[in-house]
Write a structure and sequence with these properties.
The protein has 735 residues and is mainly alpha-helical. The protein is 57% helix and 5% strand. The protein contains 25 helices and 14 strands.
Length: 735
């Protein structure tokens, strides 16, 4: 099967492959109803309506990828179901026929094959015979039980009739949709809350089954309202859909994260997937739907992290519980899982497309109003200051979140999947250098946000971004610059520790193997800066390598990694640290003359060296490393901070725009071990408050290189990232 980029599209691909591999039965041209199913022995019952939803997920895959395998499978399934149903489409259950008609109508719209259209129209003619006056109207559930009316036989009929009207323009179909919807809403929707009951008169007593509370009933009523809104423009339908969605959340989803319940196996295994399908239709129509999209993505994240089998994308009925290795997985629950992942992919693609438009950016971030639009800030001349926005954030969590969203809004590039290097992007010069290491720090700040909030959206962004970076860099993380690889490996390792994903760890370890080749005897040892200049040694290529080696040791307990950390640290300390003060110089032998660049006084050199000291203290318990770190911290503040305000210097743009943020990151690491270092804490807090009060435009979410001056356009990603690291650190300290 063809795969496409993006975290949820990749996961949808994997789930579709699992469906194909574990369930497809070529001998019957249908899916087995469970797996394992040796020799098709499980197929004693013909689950007609399960096959309808199987067709629906094949359409999902085909619409998303245009992979001809999906179209081929659709035709085979069409033949298999028709053959199994004695050569005709109608059966005795009206709801079954509606699910089937909906699937073939979508298949027709996706492929243009006339036979799918005819199947849908044939079924629709039969479905209309289900309407009768018992219980005041409505479509019956079963041809031999005409007095039993339920939501699954009525709301999908509304969706079908409205879509047929939209596709072919028959006014009678719209009248059917309105008539069935009005009956459904009047008879089976709680007027007080909008919650949808399942059915009425099941036992012939006229009673409503108010204790039958199923997810799919909410989903199809939401879908019916959305389809009628689409064809009529009547906002009352839109309000109905929102009301039912909220009632569903209150009544059925858990109160902590909004995860949908385990409704059991058999037919019930399909219920959640159906709700998700029609909730996704609604999310794409609702003007402000970011919170609802986040809810859906949380369910998808929980399913992926907790609810799939350990060795593949097979799903049980409980999205919060991993099926055991010997579990029998039913087709119904598998289809629900595939629907969830396909719908997450739909929303992912919608968000990516929205990056390029003003309206899309505002909608994707769930914030109305021009102040949140990507292009709200006019693009004055390079030297002009943008106007200061209103300070509405009340705490550092909110401020850090604002900057996280601003990064995606201002710098996110849907074509590459990584970040632009300028905002506005038009300021990028043709053929400008690709600053690979800036992107490593993008991943680092996403990890910051995920660790701070626990929100799955940040985990999703981490994975999508890191895989896009891997692809953009030529399907590898390796690079010519050793320091660039070290920054990337450090970010990947943090991503692994935050999420548990083995992929991040594998990539970090692969980078570490390459990084170790940097050590050579020039200048008495040390890690080279880049592969084509092996005799130039500097702190940015050595101290981060020591941090990485120490962290790998703490993770894997490989003594070789600890030895690497100690050896690199000792070289850095003996060559590039002032023995009288602890201040860290940048590098040596840059020009081949063996000289140390004493006048290159950069904040980040102090940060990574003291970070290396803290990590080695954690590995060994040797307090001399911690004393080194404290000494360098003191020297940094004395040498580089304004003595009255504690403000860090403006180090400029390009690579140096990142330097202060890196220092802040490792000062925060120092505070984890020595929280009594009040001067360090105060310095971070003073810089953060200065940035927010004097150096940032809140509405645009832009930071400048000077944290006490308003930013000017254009703003580079490196500069923005430093401000984000400062805000994330302030959020940690505020707790």
């Amino acid at each position: 099967m063809i795969t496409v980029s993006g975290i949820w599209t990749k996961r949808a691909d994997e789930a579709q492959r699992a469906l194909e591999r574990h369930f497809w039965n070529d001998s019957i041209r249908m899916y087995n109803i469970e797996t394992p199913c040796p020799n098709g022995a499980c197929n004693t019952i013909f689950h007609y309506w399960w096959m309808a939803h199987a067709a629906d997920v094949l359409v999902d895959g085909y619409v998303r990828t245009a992979d001809p395998l999906y179209a081929e499978r659709l035709e085979q399934l069409y033949e298999g179901v028709l053959r199994r149903n004695d050569g005709e489409w109608p059966n005795e259950l009206y709801d079954d026929m509606e699910w089937m008609a909906l699937a073939w109508l979508r298949a027709y719209e996706a492929t243009g094959l006339e036979k799918y259209k005819q199947a849908a129209l044939t079924l629709w003619e039969d479905i209309q015979t289900g309407w009768n006056d018992i219980q005041g109207g409505g479509i019956a559930w079963h041809k031999e039980q005409l007095g039993y009316k339920n939501t699954p036989a009525n709301a999908p009929a509304v969706i079908l009739a409205a879509r047929l009207h939209r596709a072919f323009g028959n006014p009678a179909d719209l009248e059917w949709a309105r008539k069935i919807y009005a009956w459904q809403k009047n008879a089976l929707v709680d007027p007080a809350t909008g919650f949808v009951w399942d059915g009425m008169n099941r036992t012939g007593d006229g009673a409503i089954d108010k204790d039958w509370k199923f997810t799919y009933c909410q989903g199809v009523f939401i879908g019916a309202a959305i389809e009628l809104f689409r064809v009529t423009g009547d906002s009352a339908y839109l309000e109905d859909s929102k009301r039912t969605f909220q009632a569903m959340r209150v009544e059925l989803a858990d109160s902590a994260e909004g995860i949908l319940p385990d409704e059991g196996g058999g037919d019930a295994g399909l219920f959640k997937g159906i709700l998700i399908r029609y909730a996704t239709e609604a999310i794409q129509v609702w003007p402000e739907a970011a919170e609802a999209a986040g809810w859906l993505t949380r369910n998808a994240s929980v399913l992926w992290e907790q609810g799939k089998t350990a060795d593949g994308a097979l799903f049980g009925t409980n999205w919060k519980s991993r099926p055991t290795s010997d579990a029998i997985i039913q087709l119904s629950s598998q289809l629900s899982g595939v629907m969830l992942l396909e719908c997450a992919a739909v929303l992912e693609q919608s968000a990516e497309q929205a990056w390029g438009s003003d309206e899309g950016d505002s909608r994707a971030n769930g914030q109305g109003g021009a102040a949140n639009s990507r292009h709200q800030v006019d693009a004055p001349g390079d030297g002009d200051h943008v106007q200061r926005g209103r300070n509405s954030a009340t705490n550092w969590d909110e401020r850090a979140d604002l900057l996280q969203e601003a990064m995606y809004r201002n710098y996110g590039n849907p074509d590459s999947g990584i970040m632009d290097q300028w905002f506005p992007r038009e300021h990028a010069a043709a053929g400008e250098n690709f600053y690979y290491w800036w992107q490593a720090h993008v991943l680092d700040v996403l990890v910051d946000a995920y660790k701070r909030t626990g929100k799955p959206v940040y985990a999703d962004r981490m994975e999508a971004f890191s895989r896009s970076l891997y692809k953009y860099n030529g399907h590898t993380f390796t690079h010519n610059y050793y320091d660039d690889m070290e920054w990337t490996a450090l970010a990947l390792l943090r991503a692994h520790q935050a999420t548990g994903s083995e992929w991040y760890k594998e990539q970090a370890l692969a980078l570490w193997e390459d990084i170790k080749t940097a050590w050579n005897d020039h200048c008495g040892g040390g890690m080279a800066w880049k592969k084509d200049q092996l005799d130039y040694k500097n702190t940015p290529a050595n101290a981060p390598a020591a941090i990485l080696a120490a962290r790998l040791y703490l993770l894997e307990r490989n003594e070789e990694d600890l030895n690497w950390a100690k050896r690199i640290y000792e070289w850095n300390k003996s060559r590039l640290v002032d023995p009288s003060t602890g201040f860290v110089w940048d590098g040596m032998n840059r020009l081949g003359d063996g000289e140390i660049d004493y006048d290159w006084k950069f904040t980040y050199c102090q940060g990574v060296f003291l970070g290396a000291g803290v990590e080695l203290y954690r590995c060994t318990g040797d307090k001399s490393y911690l004393e080194d770190a404290k000494r360098t911290s003191d020297a940094c503040m004395l040498e580089l901070c304004d003595p009255e305000t504690l403000l860090l210097p403006d180090e400029g743009i390009d690579d140096t725009g990142l330097f202060k943020g890196i220092l802040i990151r490792y000062l925060l690491v120092l505070l984890e071990e020595v929280p009594e270092e009040a001067a360090v804490r105060r310095m971070i807090q003073c810089n953060a408050e200065t940035l927010w009060e004097k150096g940032m435009l809140e509405d645009a979410g832009l930071c400048g290189p000077a944290w006490d001056a308003l930013p000017t356009l254009p703003v580079q990603l490196s500069v923005q990232l430093s401000g984000m690291m400062l805000a994330e650190a302030a959020a940690v300290l505020s707790k």
